[in-house]
Amino acid sequence: MTRTVALITGAASGIGQALAVAFAHKGVAVVGGYYPADPHDPEITARLVADAGGECLMAELDVTRTASVDALAEQAISRFGRIDYAVANAGLLRRAPLLEMTDERWNEMLDVDLTGVMRTFRAAARHMGEGGSMVAISSIAGGVYGWQDHSHYAAAKAGVPGLCRSLAVELAPRGIRCNAVIPGLIETPQSLDSKNSLGPEGLAKAARAIPLGRIGRADEVASLVRFLCSDESSYLTGQSIVIDGGLTVRWPE
């Protein structure tokens, strides 16, 4: 039987890594992209996938370069012969107040967090057929809430659901679905960065406002993404699903 294949960007840590393992448990082969300048070791993902009984190809990726994204898709075809799922998870997070915002900072953020999603889906769509599924990772920052000192990040993440809605309509005649996931406060290397995000103390404080009383885990987001890629969600497309422990629906206190 031909193995199902998932292409994941940002697969060396956080949600991307958790998703690679989640797919491995379901017998899905993983092609994971990682940015070599990041401090995360891609071999850890490869080892975790192997431990879960899966098969994984980790490859260098820069989502700001079309040639790099196209090359990742071509590597998936060369190794496994197909792409069934594409998950645009790679992201950049930097703090920048408006009065300190440069055009370069703004453009860099959108190039990674929004245009990088488009490049990933465009590359995958060339090889994807009936039953294919695309999922992009947005954020409640921009997807639901505003976030001071992060207007460029919020703008990019707000654009992701719009991109997914449009692609859902465009690709539906080919039998390809496209959805967005909007995570709330999830413990990842990115959110634990005190300089650019909340950091451990900020997350602990924020947890008190979450109805379920805790910060989310990367594997919980991965489970939702895996569902959106499965036949169990075969009639679900063009949607943006919030996974936040109830944070965005709580009554203000």
Give the helices and strands, then pairings.
Layout: E1 5-9, H1 14-25, E2 29-34, H2 42-51, E3 56-60, H3 66-80, E4 85-88, H4 103-113, H5 115-125, E5 133-137, H6 140-143, H7 151-171, E6 177-183, E7 186-187, H8 199-207, E8 216-217, H9 218-229, E9 240-243
Parallel strand pairs: 1-2, 1-4, 2-3, 4-5, 5-6, 6-9, 7-8
Helix pairs in contact: 1-2, 1-9, 3-5, 4-7
Domain Ketoreductase: 4-203
InterPro entries: KR_dom, NAD(P)-bd_dom_sf, Sc_DH/Rdtase_CS, SDR_fam
Keywords: Oxidoreductase
Reading side by side through the largest sheet, how are the strands ordered? 3-2-1-4-5-6-9
Instruction: Identify the CATH architecture.
Output: 3-Layer(aba) Sandwich
Number of helices: 9
Distance between the termini: 54 Å
CATH topology category name: Rossmann fold
Radius of gyration in whole Å, from Cα? 17 Å
Strand count: 9
**Helix and strand string, N-terminal first?**
EHEHEHEHHEHHEEHEHE
- State the shape: globular
- The CATH homologous superfamily name equals NAD(P)-binding Rossmann-like Domain
CATH class: Alpha Beta
GO molecular function, one term: oxidoreductase activity, acting on the CH-OH group of donors, NAD or NADP as acceptor
Keywords: Oxidoreductase
InterPro entries: KR_dom, NAD(P)-bd_dom_sf, Sc_DH/Rdtase_CS, SDR_fam
Organism: Pseudomonas graminis
